[in-house]
Design a protein that fits this description.
Elements (H helix, E strand, L loop, with lengths): L10 H9 L5 H13 L5 H14 L8 H11 L4 H7 L8 H16 L12 H6 L1 H52 L2 H13 L1
Organism: Iodidimonas muriae
Keywords: Membrane, Transmembrane, Transmembrane helix
Protein name: DUF2062 domain-containing protein
Length: 197
C-alpha cells in the first residue's frame, strides 16, 4: 500500500498523529507533497484530483467527502489518490472556519438572518432529532459551499498543475543528465524512466 506504516499505530496514536503530527506540520506537508508529485499521472490528472478533494472539503456532507472527491475526480479525469490527498485540506483545524464561512455565505445568499438556523439548536434536540436540529444549518451551508468549492477547485487546480509541471520538468532534466553520464545500456533504462516522468 502507498501509505502503510511498518509498525501500525493504535487508535490513540492515530488520533494524536492526525491532530498534531509527531514530525511537525512542515515535514508532514513535505511528505505529502513528495507522494503527490511522484504519482504516475499527468500534471492535469494530479491537479484535477487534488482540486476535486479540496473542493469537496467545502461542503457540509461529512462522511461523504472521499466518495464525493472520487466522483468529481473521475468526472474531471483526475487522479483518485490525488483527490483523497486533496481532502486533507478539510481537517479538525480548518473545518470550524470552513463551516462558519459557508454558513454565513449561504445565509446571505438565501436571505436568512445568521441566527435563524442556530438559535434553536440544543444538545437534547441534536441527540434525539438530529435531522430537525441540523436541517436549518445544512441548507445554507450546502448553498454557501457551492461557490466556494467551485472557486477553490479552479485556484487549487492552477496552483497544483503549475507546481507538478515544474517538478516533472526538473525531474526530466535530472534524469537526462544522469542518462548522459551512464553507459549505453543503463542510459536506455533511465530514458524509459524519463518517458514515465
Amino acid at each position: 500500500m502507498l501509505f502503510r506504516r511498518k509498525i501500525p499505530l493504535n487508535l490513540w496514536q492515530k488520533v494524536r498523529q492526525g491532530l498534531w503530527p509527531k514530525s511537525g506540520w512542515s515535514r508532514a506537508a513535505r511528505y505529502v507533497w513528495h507522494r503527490l508529485a511522484r504519482l504516475k499521472d499527468s500534471a492535469h490528472g494530479v491537479a484535477a484530483g487534488v482540486a476535486s478533494g479540496v473542493a469537496i472539503s467545502f461542503t457540509p456532507f461529512m462522511g461523504f467527502h472521499l466518495i464525493g472527491a472520487m466522483g468529481i475526480a473521475l468526472a474531471a479525469r483526475g487522479n483518485v489518490i490525488a483527490a483523497w490527498i486533496g481532502t486533507l485540506i478539510g481537517n479538525p483545524w480548518t473545518f470550524p472556519f470552513i463551516w462558519v464561512a459557508i454558513y454565513r455565505l449561504g445565509s446571505w445568499m438565501i436571505g436568512n438572518r445568521m441566527d435563524e438556523g442556530a438559535h434553536h439548536l440544543s444538545f437534547d434536540l441534536l441527540v434525539h432529532h438530529p435531522t430537525a436540529a441540523l436541517g436549518p444549518l445544512l441548507l445554507p451551508m450546502a448553498i454557501g459551499g457551492l461557490p466556494i468549492a467551485l472557486i477553490s477547485w479552479f485556484v487549487s487546480y492552477w496552483l497544483v498543475r503549475r507546481s507538478i509541471e515544474r517538478f516533472q520538468a526538473a525531474r526530466r532534466i535530472k534524469l537526462e543528465m544522469v542518462r548522459k553520464r551512464l553507459p549505453k545500456k543503463e542510459g536506455r533504462a533511465v530514458s524509459r524512466d524519463m518517458k514515465r516522468a
